Amino acid sequence: MSASVYGIDLGTTYSSIARISDLGGAEIIPNFEGDQTTPSVVFFEAPESVVVGDVAKRSAVADPDNACLLIKRHMGTEYPQDFQGEVYSPEAISALILKELVRVANQESGGEATKAVITVPAYFGAQERESTRQAGQMAGIEVVGIVTEPVAAALSIGARSDRTETIMVYDLGGGTFDTTVLKLGDGQVEVVAVDGNRKLGGADWDAALVEMIVEKFTATADVGDEDPRHDEEFMIDLRLEAESAKISLTRRESTNLRLAFDGTKSTVEVTRAEFEEATRHLLTQTVEIAERTVEIAQQKDPGVSVDRVLLVGGSSRMPQVTRALTEQLGWQIEDTEFDLAVAKGAAIYGQAAVDEVIMTGDESSPVGLSADATPRAFLPGASATLNVQNVLSRSIGVGFSRGVDDEEGYIRFFAHANDPIPLDPDPIEAQTLVPNQTTVKVRLYEQAGERESEVVADNRLITDAHLQLPTGLPEKSPVSMSAQISSEGIVTLVATDGVSGESIELRGHVSVLSEEQVAAQTKVVESLALRS
To answer: Quick one: what percent of the chain has pLDDT higher than 70?
Structure first.
């Protein structure tokens, strides 16, 4: 086997790192504390030093202003954070987590690996995926691929027979939720449909539990006119207690919390029934998304039925999840290594890339691939060939106007969520709006919400450019737009003036940060002393 490549599950609340062992199986590399997961928390203890993980999470209680949590929810967006006099992008903060994961893994395993596959939620779009890659670059990692979490989870269980199975992956992580229907068998992975909500996750259950606890505490404790919600230190401490309480409620019918505020102490009891009632609206959202994903899969592949349902993500352990999917949808649920399956699957995927096992439809692997690759034995229960066929996570379209006075415009989509990629859509035939129009502004958009919408505000501008037109063109002169979407999800749009033949090309694989900004943030990350 060639040099190791790590599989990294860069999670919203917890992260983990895995590799393929000398025996050919995927294994998690524990951190210095012996834990298999590491809190995705960064604490800036000084201008020149940073702490990642458990210590950072505990330090956040005493000094919340210098702690950063849940940064994954802001990947691919402009969300600058100021710590110790330095401004950090979400990519740079994520890079610190990645860098420490790799540093500890190398020290614990005695290796010097620098290659890694990093996972992302299935519902991440082009910008979030590119931002994740840039975070790896800032961390000094050679990112050999970006793979979606459900594909990684499916790879972690292997293919148990030559028979192809249809699998639903229900992935409720700390900060994101998505569902994926895919076909898996003998090393072949075909994604059929994806759906999800990038801002729904276990952290929302935690927030609901925190609110319930605060209400119970203020009702029983003598706090006068003071509202504990306004005490940041109390609330951060409570959030940590609530997370532990949520874990306890997966095993017990009730739990007690001893709280103190402004000299007042009180014990609060929370029952599982109360917690489930307070979070019923959140669970309902996940069930609706799961149903919708199956409906999409059946529209694409009539007659398809789900053979297995895999629960992934730490928050999927909650008893209400299994009960809802069983009672409401009639599914038989199969547990996985909730917190570890994704990292293990990423390691399998990554080792396939560096060992040049055939891979097609890979979301973003720059590795050269060989058709005559030497067979490898590390893919459990399957042949050596790893073939991944993916789908587009979000719809892609172009901005248009209905007329000269239409200031808002609308989006015409040429590719839709869950279309198989690579994709070569039909050309869009457009026209100029006015006589003697000198330019056409071409705007490329990606769906931003859960559902496709032609309203411009419901979409995210990826990139735009101006096509220069010959002077004297009459109104309704033809402009043709042709697009291609690669297996990596890279969108290329060419707009051509039908009279002169002049054209412009837009590429949709963009990120919030420019190359110069990435270089600058990389220097900042490199200058910091890291510890766990």
So the answer is: 91
Average pLDDT estimate for 244-272: 91
Q: DSSP secondary structure string, 259-293?
A: EEETTEEEEEEEEHHHHHHHTHHHHHHHHHHHHHH
Residue 446: burial class (beta carbons within 10 Å; 0-12, 13-18, 19+): buried
Average pLDDT (102-119) is 91
C-alpha to C-alpha distance for 92 and 358, rounded to whole angstroms: 33
* CA 52 to mean position of chain CA atoms: 20
pLDDT tens-place string over residues 297-350: 999 999 889 998 999 988 999 999 999 999 999 998 887 788 899 999 999 888
> What would the CATH number be for the domain defined by 396-501?
2.60.34.10
Mean pLDDT of 211-236: 85
pLDDT at 96 over 80: yes
* Residue ranges of domains in the chain: 5-188+305-383, 396-501
What letter represents residue 464's amino acid? D
- Could you give phi then psi for residue 502, rounded to 5 degrees? -70, 145
From CA 103, how far away is CA 113, in angstroms rounded?
A: 9
Contact 108, 30 (CB under 8 A): yes
- Residues 182, 130 contacting (CB under 8 angstroms): no
What is the widest separation between alpha-carbon atoms in the chain?
A: 80
pLDDT digits (tens, 9 = 90+) for 138-175: 999 999 888 889 889 888 876 445 678 899 999 998 88
Angle (CA) 110-115-121 rounded to 5° is 115
Name the CATH topology of 5-188+305-383. Answer: Nucleotidyltransferase; domain 5 (3.30.420)
